[in-house]
């Protein structure tokens, strides 16, 4: 009877990208173990993806694996970024349900079943919602609002949907997400593309246990660029529209000047300053659009050149076998 019950247990895979989390990740794993003991019918595994930080996070991950065989560690060859680390963890995950969360303790594992219980036939992706986050800085809130606006505009994200790093999803969605092999993953865009029912669930958001966010301004801009270029061609269409508008205004202005010259021959001055201003505006627009096109072409080139999404340098499994 116990064996038959065991066969019915559902496996939850916790995927956690780790960066400078040597002082926090042990507590997060302990909280996961504690909460999983409170609910029957579930087994779990924890996949810790070390994104090659400068601290001793990898050593601590290996220690956690020795203490708890349900913990698996993956070590990246260098710092690829949070979303690339998530993709590495997703491909390693074996669970029926996959939960991703932060390594700093701000996404409390005690809230996990609030997300998991929302998964059903009509809902296959659940985002933790902490829109009233009282611990985020003004800069991060501004960046979050901007990302939310661009995702709504470029990715057709429902306005009421809130993106966060605390996500529970089904095996079927993750299998679709894993089909993306490009070097610039944007997990939220992949979830939108792969999931048919995406909802929010209110969860608690705790204060960071140690340190500060691993996201610098440049990393936030790179993440925004991934979402900007990977899943939408709207920027290119806007460029074409701007070009058409400028050409239309130029044609109308030229027609106006010709007619004015024919009627009032002395009314039209050479207007060198006006010409220079117009040339600078049009030249700036042209260079802007060339830069945007170059960004798209560059990313296509890197994808065609088989630039890796991530490189796994070491795993705790290889350590166990040696």
TrEMBL record:
Glycosyltransferase keyword on record: yes
> Coiled-coil stretches, from where to where?
none
SUPFAM superfamilies given in the database record: Nucleotide-diphospho-sugar transferases
Does Endoplasmic reticulum appear among the keywords?
A: no
Keywords of this protein's UniProt record, alphabetized?
Answer: Cell membrane, Glycosyltransferase, Lipopolysaccharide biosynthesis, Membrane, Transferase, Transmembrane, Transmembrane helix
User: Can you give the residue ranges of the Glycosyltransferase 2-like domain?
Assistant: 13-152
Q: Which domain of life is it from?
A: Bacteria
Q: Name one GO molecular function term.
A: undecaprenyl-phosphate 4-deoxy-4-formamido-L-arabinose transferase activity
Signal peptide residues on this chain, from the entry's feature table? none
* GO terms of biological process kind: lipopolysaccharide biosynthetic process
> What sections of the protein cross the membrane?
238-259, 271-294
Q: Which Gene3D superfamilies match?
A: Spore Coat Polysaccharide Biosynthesis Protein SpsA, Chain A (3.90.550.10)
InterPro entries tied to this protein:
Glyco_trans_2-like (IPR001173), Glycosyltransferase_2 (IPR050256), Nucleotide-diphossugar_trans (IPR029044)
A GO cellular-component term linked to this record? plasma membrane
PANTHER family per the UniProt record, alphabetical: UNDECAPRENYL-PHOSPHATE 4-DEOXY-4-FORMAMIDO-L-ARABINOSE TRANSFERASE, UNDECAPRENYL-PHOSPHATE 4-DEOXY-4-FORMAMIDO-L-ARABINOSE TRANSFERASE-RELATED
* Protein name in the entry: Glycosyltransferase
| Taxonomic placement | Bacteria, Bacillati, Bacillota, Erysipelotrichia, Erysipelotrichales
């Amino acid at each position: 009877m116990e064996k038959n019950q065991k066969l019915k247990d559902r496996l939850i895979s916790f995927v956690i990208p780790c960066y400078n989390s040597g002082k926090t990740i042990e507590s997060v794993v302990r909280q996961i173990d504690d909460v999983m003991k409170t609910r029957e019918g579930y087994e779990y595994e924890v996949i810790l993806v070390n994104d090659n930080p400068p601290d001793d996070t990898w050593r601590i991950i290996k220690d956690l694996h020795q203490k708890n065989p349900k913990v698996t560690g993956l070590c990246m060859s260098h710092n690829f970024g949070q979303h690339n680390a998530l993709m590495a963890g997703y491909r390693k995950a074996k669970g029926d349900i996959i939960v991703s969360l932060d390594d700093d303790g701000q996404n409390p594992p005690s809230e996990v079943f609030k997300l998991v219980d929302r998964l059903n036939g009509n809902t296959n992706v659940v985002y933790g919602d902490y829109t009233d986050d009282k611990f985020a800085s003004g800069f991060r809130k501004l960046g979050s609002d901007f990302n939310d606006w661009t995702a709504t505009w470029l990715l057709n994200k429902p306005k009421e949907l809130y993106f966060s790093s605390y996500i529970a999803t089904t095996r079927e969605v993750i299998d679709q997400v894993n089909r993306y092999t490009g070097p610039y993953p944007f997990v939220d865009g992949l979830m939108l593309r792969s999931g048919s029912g995406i909802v929010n669930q209110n969860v608690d958001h705790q204060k960071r246990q140690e340190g500060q966010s691993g996201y610098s301004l440049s990393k936030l801009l790179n993440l925004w660029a991934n979402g900007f270029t990977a899943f939408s061609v709207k920027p290119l269409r806007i460029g074409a529209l701007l070009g058409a508008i400028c050409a239309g205004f130029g044609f109308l202005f030229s027609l106006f000047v010709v007619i004015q010259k024919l009627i009032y021959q002395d009314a039209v001055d050479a207007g060198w300053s006006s010409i220079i201003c117009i040339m600078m505006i049009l030249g700036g627009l042209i260079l802007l659009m060339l830069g945007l096109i170059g960004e798209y072409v560059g990313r296509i080139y890197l994808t065609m050149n088989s630039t890796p999404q991530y490189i796994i340098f070491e795993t705790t499994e290889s350590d166990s076998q040696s």
